[in-house]
C-alpha cells in the first residue's frame, strides 16, 4: 500500500442491521478509541490524525477514499493513548457522543471526497420528524414495510384430561343363573362381534326353567281340551254348569302358568342367548362389537353370584376425552366450543372435537368440572385410560396485531415508524399488550390498513 503513487487509501465500512459495525483497512493502519464506546477506526499521519467517523453515514459496505494522505511508518506512530486528542477529553454522555460522532462523521466524509467530485446525496432526509429514505440507497433495501391487519385469534385454555370408554359401549357379561363354566373361548384383547358366543356353562336353574316351560304348555293344552269337552257335554244337556266353570278356571290357571314360564325363559334367552332343546346349557353371547377387556373366570369354575361379571367387552369405535376443568375456568367453557386433544402417548397426532356436555356439579375432592368430547376412533389408536391435554379454543374479537420487531423504545414510549408516503416515514407512539408470541396487540395508535416498518426500523431510530 505504501508504494501507491497516488497515495490513495480507502476505508471500508461494514454496518450491521443495528447500526454497529467495523472497518477494515490494509496493513492494520486502524485503531479503536475506547472512549467512543464503539469500535471506531482511527488512521495516524505525520501531520494530523483522522477523527472517528460515524458508521451509519457511510452505509453498508461503503468505500471512502482519502487522497494526499501520507502515513508515517508504524514504528514512528505514537500510542493513541498519548497522542490522540480524544483520549485527553472527558468522556461524553450518550446523547452528546452521538451528536459529536455524527458531526465529525459528516466532516470526514466531506474532507475525504476528492476535489472536483460531487458530494453523495444523503440516504435519509429529516423534515420536521418526517424521514425520507432515498429509494436507491442501501438503507431502503434493508427496510421491510407491512400493512397493519386485523387478526382474529383464539384464546387457548389447556386443561388436563383422559381418554375414557363410552359407557354405552363398555359392558360386562354376567350369567343370569348359577352354574359351572364349561367353555371360555375368548381372552383379553380378542375382538368380538355382537352375538358371538363368549362363554358356556351348565346350570340346574336353566334346566328347571326349561322344564317349567314344558310342563306349563302341557298343562295348558290339557286344560283347554277339558274345557272344550265340558262345554260340549253341557250343550247336550248332560253336564252341570258347575263342571263347565271348573274347567274354565283350570284352563285360565294353566294359561297363566304358561305365560310365566315363557316369560322366564324369554328373559334368560335375551341375557344369555339360550336356545330351546339344549337342556341346562347356557350360552353367553357378546352384546356389542368390541374388544374383550377383562376375563374374570376360567373353565371349570362354578358361578354362584349372578351379579359378578364374568368378562367385560369394550367398544372403541367411539371414545370420550374427559377434561378436568378447574373451578376458576368453569365460566369460560360452554357446550359446542371447539377443542384440540393431544395425547402424550401419540406424539404428533391431534384430535379435534366439540364439547358435547359439561357436568353441572363440581367434584368435591378435586374442585373440578368434567367436560367431555366425543371422538371417533376407527383405528382404535385411542385407548381408554390414556392421559390427554384438551386445549379449548375460545374465539376472541378481531384485534390489531403487529410484529414485535416493529417496536422501538423512545423515552419509555413504545413507537413504530409509519409509512406516510412511499419511502417516507414518521415515528408514532402506540400502546400495546405484550404477548408470548411474535405478535403483540396494539390497543391505540394504529388503524387497520396503515403500513409500518417491521424490519430495519432500528436503522431509522438511529438516524
Structural class: alpha+beta
Give the number of DSSP strands. 28
> What is the percent of helical residues?
10-25%
Radius of gyration: 47 Å
Overall outline:
rod-shaped
Number of helices: 8
Name the strands of the widest sheet in spatial order: 8-17-20-19-18-21
Sheet having the most strands: 6 strands, antiparallel, barrel
Give the strand content: 25-35%
Mean pLDDT figure: 74
Unreliable runs: 1-102, 105-121, 273-277
Distance between the termini: 34 Å
Topology:
Layout: E1 9-15, E2 21-24, H1 55-58, E3 62-66, H2 80-83, H3 85-88, H4 94-112, E4 124-127, E5 130-133, H5 138-142, E6 144-147, E7 149-151, E8 154-165, E9 170-173, E10 179-183, E11 191-192, E12 197-202, H6 204-235, H7 241-272, E13 281-285, E14 290-295, E15 302-303, E16 311-314, E17 318-326, E18 338-342, E19 350-358, E20 368-376, E21 387-395, E22 399-403, E23 408-410, E24 413-421, E25 424-429, E26 431-433, E27 439-444, E28 451-455, H8 457-461
Helix pairs in contact: 6-7
Amino acid at each position: 500500500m505504501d508504494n501507491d503513487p497516488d497515495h490513495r487509501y480507502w476505508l471500508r465500512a461494514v454496518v450491521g442491521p443495528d447500526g454497529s459495525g467495523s472497518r477494515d483497512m490494509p496493513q492494520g493502519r486502524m485503531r479503536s478509541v475506547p472512549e467512543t464506546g464503539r469500535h471506531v477506526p482511527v488512521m495516524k499521519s505525520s501531520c494530523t490524525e483522522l477523527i472517528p467517523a460515524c458508521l451509519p453515514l457511510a452505509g453498508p459496505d461503503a468505500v471512502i477514499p482519502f487522497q494526499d494522505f501520507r502515513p508515517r511508518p508504524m514504528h514512528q506512530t505514537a500510542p493513541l493513548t498519548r497522542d490522540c486528542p480524544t483520549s485527553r477529553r472527558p468522556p461524553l454522555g450518550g446523547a452528546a457522543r452521538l451528536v459529536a460522532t455524527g458531526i465529525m462523521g459528516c466532516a470526514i466524509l466531506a474532507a475525504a471526497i476528492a476535489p472536483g467530485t460531487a458530494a453523495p446525496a444523503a440516504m435519509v432526509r429529516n423534515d420536521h420528524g418526517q424521514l425520507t429514505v432515498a429509494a436507491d440507497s442501501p438503507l431502503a433495501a434493508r427496510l421491510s414495510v407491512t400493512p397493519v391487519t386485523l387478526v382474529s385469534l383464539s384464546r387457548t385454555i389447556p386443561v388436563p384430561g383422559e381418554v375414557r370408554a363410552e359407557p354405552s359401549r363398555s359392558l360386562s357379561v354376567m350369567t343370569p343363573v348359577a352354574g359351572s363354566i364349561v367353555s371360555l373361548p375368548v381372552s383379553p384383547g380378542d375382538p368380538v362381534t355382537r352375538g358371538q358366543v363368549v362363554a358356556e356353562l351348565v346350570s340346574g336353574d336353566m334346566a328347571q326353567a326349561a322344564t317349567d316351560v314344558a310342563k306349563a304348555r302341557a298343562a295348558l293344552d290339557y286344560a283347554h281340551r277339558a274345557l272344550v269337552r265340558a262345554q260340549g257335554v253341557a250343550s247336550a244337556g248332560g253336564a252341570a254348569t258347575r263342571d263347565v266353570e271348573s274347567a274354565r278356571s283350570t284352563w285360565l290357571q294353566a294359561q297363566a302358568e304358561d305365560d310365566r314360564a315363557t316369560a322366564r325363559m324369554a328373559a334368560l334367552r335375551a341375557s344369555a342367548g339360550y336356545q330351546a332343546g339344549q337342556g341346562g346349557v347356557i350360552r353367553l353371547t357378546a352384546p356389542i362389537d368390541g374388544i374383550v377387556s377383562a376375563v374374570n373366570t376360567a373353565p371349570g369354575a362354578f358361578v354362584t353370584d349372578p351379579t359378578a361379571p364374568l368378562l367385560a367387552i369394550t367398544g372403541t369405535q367411539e371414545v370420550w376425552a374427559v377434561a378436568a376443568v378447574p373451578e376458576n375456568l368453569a365460566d369460560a367453557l360452554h357446550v359446542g366450543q371447539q377443542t384440540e386433544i393431544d395425547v402424550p402417548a401419540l406424539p404428533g397426532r391431534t384430535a379435534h372435537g366439540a364439547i358435547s356436555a359439561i357436568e353441572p356439579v363440581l367434584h368435591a375432592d378435586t374442585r373440578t368440572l368434567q367436560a367431555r368430547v366425543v371422538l371417533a376412533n376407527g383405528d382404535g389408536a385411542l385407548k381408554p385410560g390414556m392421559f390427554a391435554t384438551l386445549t379449548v379454543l375460545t374465539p376472541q374479537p378481531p384485534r390489531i396485531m403487529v410484529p414485535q420487531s416493529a417496536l422501538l423504545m423512545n423515552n419509555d414510549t413504545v413507537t413504530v415508524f409509519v409509512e406516510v408516503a412511499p419511502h417516507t416515514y414518521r415515528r408514532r407512539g402506540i400502546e400495546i399488550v405484550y404477548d408470548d408470541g411474535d405478535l403483540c396487540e396494539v390497543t391505540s395508535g394504529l388503524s387497520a390498513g396503515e403500513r409500518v416498518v417491521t424490519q430495519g426500523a432500528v436503522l431509522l431510530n438511529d438516524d
